[in-house]
Amino acid sequence: MTASAALEGGPAARTERAFPALDGLRALAATAVVLTHAAFATGDHTSSAAGRVLAHLDVGVPVFFVLAGFLLSRPFLLAGAEGRPAPRAVPYLWRRALRILPAYWITVAAALLLLPGNDGAGPATWVRHLLLVQVYDDGGFAAGLTHTWSLCTEVAFYLVLPLAAGGLVRLGRRDPRRPWPVLAALGGAALLGLAWLVAVWTAQRTFVPTDLWLPAFSGWFAGGVALAALTVADPGWRPVRVVRELAGSLGTCWAGAAVLFWIACTPVAGPLGLAAPSAGQAVTRSLLYGGVAVLLVAPLVLGEQRGRVRAALSGRTARLLGEVSYGLFLVHVVLLTGGYDLTGTPVFTGPLVLVAPATWLAGVGVAWLLYVLVERPLRRFRHAADGVALSRRRRSGGSGRTEATATDSAATPSA
């Protein structure tokens, strides 16, 4: 998940606190995205071994998507496994919007007002980007905002999740602690996503980026949801035992992720740069990236929560960087583009050893300001929609026990 749920409270925040090492992993994923964009700007996406690694550090994006699938779906699946009412959609969507949109809107305004490449941006450009619909037409992306495609896709997942999770809970209702139907449905969603990629890359190309729409990444989100389903399933169920045994070895999982990443850096996963891949290459890349992300996340949610690596990923510094990683993701391309404009440096030039650290440090600084001045103060409004869910449930004859009261009771004061 691009943005930590810790500030927004609710079930997702409770899940995040139960798996603290995910903060550090989120920070590493954001750093990988910064590095690959800095390397693109400096012209270091080359065919050399180092260039190929730098070009494929966008593997941080599938890590975001797997985290989103895991953290946001688990409260729904856990409620189904325990026979409790599912989290209510209105409070869930309100908290996500409050967490995501204010900092994003500030970033869009900064890019459109300050970057020379956006001089003359009209109302349509503002509306498209503010509403996160820039991937659904042929209008392209404003300068400094090209990376926001992934946020558009992630927000689409947020919107469909309550309905999709409800369907998964109903599928597994017969035996919720042994969710074979749920895992089968998630496998089907992943296959449909691969079919979408084949259709997109074999059809006549248009300027509408359909390869960036949610169906193209359903397998990555499904991987996170599958991990969530396994964490709430019967620990004695054989599939859970097998996966937990594998996930118990962080070194094995991460070595597997490294092997898959190395393969993804070869031409089998497609060309470098902005050249279009074949359908087969697009499918291969999706499978490899999804495998990397799942293998990175699995030992942090299914393995024992101890060890030096897990301790480092859940330490104070990692938690702080994880909290501001959303802001870092938002602003780093704006800063990178603005830095090139301000210094008059031609694109695809410049020393990566200077550009990348400068972009990361400036990004963390601005992200911290956004966190302190915008994101953290807004947390006071995170329960504003709980009353809507409560009144609706009372009118429908329910117990009035909303997702906030049902799942926040164990939350710490920092939620």
Task: Please characterize this protein's 3D structure.
The protein has 415 residues and is mainly alpha-helical. The chain is 67% helix and 0% strand. Helix 4 (60-82) runs parallel beside helix 7 and helix 9 runs parallel beside helix 12. The longest helix has 28 residues, at 316-343.
Secondary structure: elements and pairs:
Blueprint: H1 10-18, H2 21-41, H3 49-55, H4 60-82, H5 89-114, H6 123-130, H7 149-171, H8 180-202, H9 218-232, H10 238-247, H11 250-264, H12 279-301, H13 308-313, H14 316-343, H15 352-375, H16 386-395, H17 403-407
Helix pairs in contact: 1-4, 2-4, 2-14, 2-15, 4-7, 4-9, 4-12, 5-14, 5-15, 8-9, 8-12, 9-12, 11-12, 14-15
